[in-house]
Design goal:
The structure holds two protein chains of two kinds. By secondary structure, chain A is mostly helical. In chain A, about 70% of the residues lie in helices and about 0% in strands. In chain A, helix 4 crosses helix 5 and helix 10 runs antiparallel to helix 16. Chain B starts with a helix and ends in a 20-residue tail after the last helix. The chains are: A mainly alpha, B mainly alpha.
């Protein structure tokens, strides 16, 4: 994985496969209009701010628990871009989301570096895992108005790609820039710093001590700035989250766990890790427990759990087989696997207060990287195995890949559904029968009206015309 | 052969994706938006599409065809958009139509109230009850979603 990737047939074929699968996915993503929830408000705030500087200053005081200045700045820049390029707001905001999808796919390809047919076969499984895992889909479903989790994921993967290469002088600067970019959009940006530490700890060559020190100093400075600004970490009760078989509102969580939160936080961290490894729970709720109680298991749960379980078994096999030796004896793939696996586990810790798929989305990316390494090792070992066992393992891998492929197809379905819902939300904005509720600020009204008009003009598919059983197999 | 077996699902998905992309270039692709009448948009909970169609100048007081399987089983019907909203138990769509030019006269109000009695939706009933007091007399009223004779 450390050699320069040649333009082998396998590499070109991998590129073609990635492009062919990503193009319709990008189209499905592009069809989703800009959201009302989480997007309209920051866009309006960004559009009506007196200046960029005042927006930056004001954004610091928007929330006592978050510091996300770039969230509003990005919205303002993208609005300006739409105006100067004379294109729709939708084209710019949705275009950025599509660009993020392409960047994530490109970085994944750089991270796994397909060079030969064994790599290509492993890629054919791991790529489906990348796109099919629920945490990747979570990066596509929402935008705020840009999906910050996808931005953080891209920054963390970029660090990983740099870590695989030979050390360069510019790496500390690039890594620090990635860390600043990620932390300025969302607190999950801390994953970039964690990625640096994990890559260095695993002995990946591209991350030297200077990179670790500079990024750690920067991260420390970020925490200090937050402290100076009086921004505190969110506690339990800031968001709703699941527990057992029930999803509780923020108020209910405060009542239930506010006095003694440690147990709930442990539950969340374990749940976040389990969600990455076994596709359960989702948002803290265990559908399997509900199925057990009701005596009927939902097909989507079966598909998700079986595919994730089979893949996780592979990862555990790789860890047990190849990481038993001393760290100094690890091969480059072993180091990459170890770093990716620890990033994945560390990501689960960010779910301490509440669980949602987006928070563990970075972990999902590295889950796919680990899958590539493990599947590659398994395929490479097949010639040394008995023929019957080798064929059995092939069938196992093919069945697992088929389940993941099915999940990828489900992402299209869910994006259609998402587009339909999002567009319908706009029918409730600027209602003719509630003109008194319309914004009084002319700029705010103009922006809202334009966004609504663009969304309404963006035709979507009604679920009534989607496959009737789609919900059963693809929506949890 | 073994590698081909493992890569099989990815090959299938790639082929399907290529097909969808080709269809996309031809104006179709995977699950493209359907062409629907205003009444069909309402019947399929597609309020945004209904709003778009109205903004394009379609009269919300003209009946439109609703294909088989959306409001009825075994036959298509021609209904007013407000009738489609009541039949589909969509109070939000009914409210939106009324706010965007749909008119309901006394006869139509009776039809809608009788239709609501067969479909039962409290949100729809609240909107209709604002326009008429007492129980609707549904004797002899032909419901718009009944099979045409």
């Amino acid at each position: 994985m450390l050699e320069v990737a040649g333009r082998s047939k396998a590499a070109l074929l991998a590129l073609a496969i990635a492009a062919l699968i990503t193009i319709p996915l990008a189209n499905s993503l592009y069809r989703v209009p800009i959201q009302v929830s989480d997007s309209l408000e920051p866009i309006v705030v960004a559009a009506t701010a007196a200046s960029t500087i005042s927006l930056l200053k004001d954004s610091i005081a928007f929330s006592p628990t978050t510091l996300r200045p770039s969230r509003y700045l990005q919205a303002r820049w993208l609005l300006a871009l739409a105006e100067s390029a004379k294109v729709t707001y939708t084209a710019v905001f949705r275009g950025v989301h599509v660009a993020l999808l392409v960047v994530l796919v490109a970085l994944f390809m750089l991270a796994v570096r397909v060079r030969d047919w064994t790599d290509l076969t492993a890629f054919s499984v791991a790529f489906l895992v990348l796109l099919g895992i629920h945490t990747f889909a979570a990066m596509l479903f929402e935008a705020f108005p840009v999906n910050h989790y996808a931005e953080v994921g891209a920054c963390a993967l970029a660090v990983f790609v740099l870590a695989q290469r030979a050390p360069r002088r510019y790496v500390p600067v690039v890594v620090c820039a990635l860390l600043v970019a990620a932390l300025s959009v969302i607190e999950s940006g801390a994953m970039v710093w964690l990625a640096v530490v994990c890559c260095a700890a695993a002995g990946m060559p591209g991350i030297r001590r200077s990179t670790v020190i500079s990024s750690t100093v920067l991260f420390g400075a970020y925490l200090l700035v937050r402290h100076q600004l009086g921004i505190v970490s969110p506690g339990i009760g800031g968001h709703g989250s699941g527990y057992g078989t029930t999803f509780y509102s923020a108020e209910e969580l405060t009542q239930k766990f506010g006095a003694h939160p440690a147990g709930f936080m442990l539950y969340n961290v374990v749940g976040g890790l389990a969600s990455l490894l076994f596709a359960e729970p989702r948002n803290g709720v265990y559908s399997l427990l509900i199925s057990w109680r009701e005596g009927e298991i939902h097909p989507v749960v079966t598909v998700n759990v079986l595919s994730s379980l089979a893949t996780t078994i592979l990862l555990l096999w790789y860890a047990a087989r190849y990481l038993r030796t001393r760290r100094t004896d690890w091969s480059p793939p072993d180091r990459a696997f170890a770093a990716a696996a620890v990033i994945l586990v560390a990501n689960a810790a960010l779910t301490a207060v509440y669980i949602k798929d987006e928070i563990i989305s970075v972990g999902g990316l590295f889950y796919a990287v680990c899958t590539f390494i493990a599947v590659r090792a398994l395929i490479a070992s097949l010639p040394q195995r008995r023929v019957t066992l080798a064929w059995a393992l092939c069938v196992f891998l093919a069945a697992d890949a088929a389940l993941w492929g099915f999940r990828v197809a489900g992402v299209h379905y869910q994006l259609r559904y998402d587009a339909f819902k999002t567009r319908n939300d706009w029918a409730e904005v600027l209602r003719e029968d509630k003109r008194d509720d319309w914004p009084h600020d002319t700029r705010e009204l103009a922006v809202t009206r334009r966004l609504q008009s663009e969304a309404i003009e963006r035709r979507t598919t009604s679920p009534s015309f989607l496959p009737r059983r789609g919900d059963v197999y693809w929506v949890e | 052969m073994m590698r081909l077996l493992i890569a099989g699902p990815c090959i299938v998905l790639t082929a399907m994706s290529a097909w969808w992309t080709t269809g996309l270039a031809a104006g179709g692709g995977l699950w493209p938006p359907d062409d629907v009448t205003l009444a069909e948009a309402v019947a399929t909970r597609n309020n945004a599409e209904a709003l778009r169609v109205i903004q394009q100048g379609v009269d919300p007081n003209r009946p439109g065809r609703v294909r088989d399987g959306l409001l009825t089983n075994g036959y298509a019907v021609d209904v007013l958009p407000v009738e489609a909203a009541v039949a589909a138990q969509r109070a939000d769509a009914l409210r939106m139509l009324l706010a965007n030019g749909a008119k309901v006269d006394d006869h139509e109000l009776t039809v809608l109230r009788c239709l609501e009695q067969s479909r039962h939706d409290s949100g729809v009933r609240d909107i209709l009850d604002e326009r008429a007091a007492g129980e609707a007399d549904c004797s002899g009223v032909q419901l718009p979603i009944d099979r045409p004779r």
